[in-house]
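User: Hi! Is it possible to get a structure for several chains at once, not just one? Here's what I have:
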Amino acid sequence: MLSPLHKQLLNDYQRDFPLSSRPYQDIADTLGVTEAEVLSAFTELNADGFISRIGPVIPPNHIGVSTLVAMSVPEAQLQVVADKISAHPEVNHNYEREHQLNLWFVLIATDAEHLRQVIEAIELETSYPAIQLPLLDDFFIDLGFKLDLNNA
Amino acid sequence: MLDDTDRKIIQATQSGLPLTPQPYHLIADQLGITAEEVMRRLSAMQNSGIIRRIGAVPNHYKLGYRFNGMTVWNIPDEFIDELGQQVGQLDFVSHCYRRPRHLPAWPYNLFAMVHGKTQQEAEQQIQQISELLGGYNLGCDVLYSTKILKKTGFRTGKPPVTD
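Assistant: Yes, the chains can be modeled jointly so their relative placement is included. Here is the combined structure:
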């Protein structure tokens, strides 16, 4: 169960996490709690998987070269193929989705040549063609996601 | 432009800031620089747009958003800039990108992620996007994620710097 402090941290600190010597103390001062309470609440959110981390969020293609990749894989082979793909450290997300193209993953490489090599390796290992759908324009202004935590 | 120290800071923080009273000091110690420099560089990267935001990264699925749909739309190229920006501003959309079509298998060029706690909530969001796009929507689909097979922070698979 999420406490009121958990919910405040989730909703108010998706952005503007303090860049200061004692950031958790600064948050504690703002919320009227102790630094230890803020640290343990964040530790719990992290341990329970409600947040994946606290840190800088980098928009795509600002560092390195990335692409979204789609593949069509028979259901019976999906897990085996997905595991082969996920084993590459360049693969940052990998999802099964309901579509003829049912395997979707994001590749981030240091440069175009590195990206090409990884795609080639994945196609060779899996024997399925990889459809590359790189980002052309980013229309999103990321202000954090407004969460409805009433029943969380 | 990013230099090696900037890249090392990004690398050191992508699995998360340490949950200790002085996280920037800990990173600074690892990199052999001062905490002030770590903070100054993070701030500069945020101002230049290299870093979009610094904060907690929520896990939508775990927080009850079980219906995470990748909505995809076929929009005439000449209208995609304006319409993409309008879709990207909807408060329930968490990503909004233009990507190339891959014909014939993939006719869609606009991607927007929606997140609902119920199927109905997700469908209402999709309906709102559909109404916004009106007659410029030449075709669409929604791909719900059925399984997360891997999710990590940003990384390129190679160290960002070579010493």
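Chain A has a mean pLDDT of 92. The helical segments of chain A are 4-12, 23-31, 35-47, 78-86, 112-126.

User: Great, thank you!
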